[in-house]
């Protein structure tokens, strides 16, 4: 069959991260790698899903109530008028919403701007659609957006820009000024903003998430994608959505119907309960994740990291290896698995452009969306290493 594989399939090969993940499994390592919670979802939404199955919501389904709830939320949170009947497509997670959004607007040869580093799945969707990813490097250590660099990247071939805020892997929340600059580029070059707002409720230190769609002239050129996955700790339920002007939302809906037909029916029903959660739910979520973030910053500090950028949102700490560390990101993660029994993600998979080649092997990503028990177990492993002083390759004195 190998000879029959398409060129697309041949290009999508396993990454070094997947290989490390196998090593981590063999070593039974504590998992601070993957961006999903290892603790239970809220009981009331689980009960809603069970009840939906028992009440036989088990067939193809479109739950209009989700669109109604989302439209209310867009008005209340961002002041945006969204028509629940025409402007929202329910999809299988943000992932499908994003893929369908790309397929709905990208033609062969269209350029799509992305920030570097970024979440890994965008590029695959863009190239599948025949688009050309063009990377705009954010500048470490604060992952600053250089307005001139961004403006130079737009061309008459630029069809869209992808904006993920709060950002995976860095934890950056794009500021209002940065959103204004991106919006200015979109308006000037008549370009679409496709946002990924899956961490919209997970921001720290009083930071607030804002959607670029609310800036002047932007709602008509923005496709917002998001999901239940991270906000409600249900990454496996596959409920997400795209919110866009009616023509784009309907194109996304048509693509979604051809690929998956509908998102899982019982989980759509449970989404109604989730989306009606009281404000206290979101406040508690933020507060708990902020404590986890601080815990992990201390943990990395204890083995010699100096965290220059404190995550403002999302579930990740993107940390530069200590200056004295001669290992690459992949080598560091291998040592960490073997010596400490803890696995994190090497940073290189998030970098794409040439500009980042100087530092793209110098970062690791730590996911702190883990239970207290998991984080304490990781701290204990680090503590044992420090006490044994047996592992010079991954222990660095703070200077
Ligand atoms: C930035 C970002 N977008 C999207 C996703 C996936 O979202 P979903 O589960 O809704 O497909 C992830 C998962 O890690 C992510 O980090």
TrEMBL record:
One of its GO terms (cellular component) is cytoplasm. Belongs to the class-I pyridoxal-phosphate-dependent aminotransferase family. Keywords: Aminotransferase, Pyridoxal phosphate, Transferase. One of its GO terms (molecular function) is kynurenine-oxoglutarate transaminase activity. The keyword Ribonucleoprotein does not apply. It comes from the Eukaryota. This is Aminotransferase class I/classII large domain-containing protein. Residues 30-380 form the Aminotransferase class I/classII large domain. InterPro entries: Aminotransferase_I/II_large, Kynurenine-oxoglutarate_AT, NHTrfase_class1_PyrdxlP-BS, PyrdxlP-dep_Trfase, PyrdxlP-dep_Trfase_major, PyrdxlP-dep_Trfase_small. Pfam families: Aminotran_1_2 (PF00155). Its cofactor is pyridoxal 5'-phosphate.
């Amino acid at each position: 069959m190998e000879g029959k594989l398409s060129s697309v399939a041949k290009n999508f090969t396993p990454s070094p991260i997947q290989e490390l993940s196998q090593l981590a499994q063999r070593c039974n390592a504590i998992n601070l790698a993957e961006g999903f919670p290892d603790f239970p979802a809220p009981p009331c939404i689980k009960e809603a899903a069970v009840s939906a199955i028992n009440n036989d919501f088990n067939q193809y389904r479109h739950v209009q109530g989700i669109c109604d709830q989302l439209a209310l939320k867009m008005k209340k949170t961002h002041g945006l008028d969204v028509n629940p009947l025409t402007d929202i497509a329910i999809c299988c997670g943000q992932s499908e919403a994003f893929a369908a959004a790309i397929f709905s607007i990208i033609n062969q040869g269209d350029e799509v701007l992305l920030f570097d580093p970024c979440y890994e799945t965008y590029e695959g969707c863009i190239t599948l659609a025949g688009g050309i990813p063009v990377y705009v490097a954010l500048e470490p250590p604060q992952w600053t957006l250089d307005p001139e660099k961004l403006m130079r990247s737009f061309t008459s071939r630029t069809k869209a820009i992808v904006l993920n805020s709060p950002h995976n892997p860095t934890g950056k929340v794009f500021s209002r000024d940065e959103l204004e600059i991106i919006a200015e580029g979109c308006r000037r070059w008549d370009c679409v903003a496709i946002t990924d707002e899956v961490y919209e409720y997970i921001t720290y230190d009083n930071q607030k998430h804002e959607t670029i769609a609310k800036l002047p002239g932007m709602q008509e050129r923005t496709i917002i994608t998001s999901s239940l996955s991270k906000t409600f700790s249900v990454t496996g339920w596959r409920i997400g959505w795209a919110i866009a002007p009616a023509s784009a939302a309907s194109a996304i809906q048509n693509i979604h119907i051809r690929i998956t037909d509908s998102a899982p029916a019982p989980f759509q029903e449970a989404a109604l309960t989730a989306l009606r959660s009281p404000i206290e739910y979101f406040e508690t979520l933020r507060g708990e994740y902020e404590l986890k973030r601080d815990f992990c910053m201390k943990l990395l500090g204890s083995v010699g990291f100096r965290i220059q950028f404190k995550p403002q949102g999302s579930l990740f700490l993107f940390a530069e290896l200590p200056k004295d560390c001669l290992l690459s990101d992949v080598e560091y993660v291998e040592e960490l698995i073997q010596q400490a029994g803890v696995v994190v993600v090497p940073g290189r998979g998030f970098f794409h452009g040439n500009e980042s080649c100087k530092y793209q092997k110098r970062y690791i990503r730590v996911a702190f969306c883990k239970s207290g028990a998991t984080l304490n177990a990781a701290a204990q492993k680090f503590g044992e290493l420090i006490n044994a002083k047996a592992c010079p390759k991954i222990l660095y004195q703070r200077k």
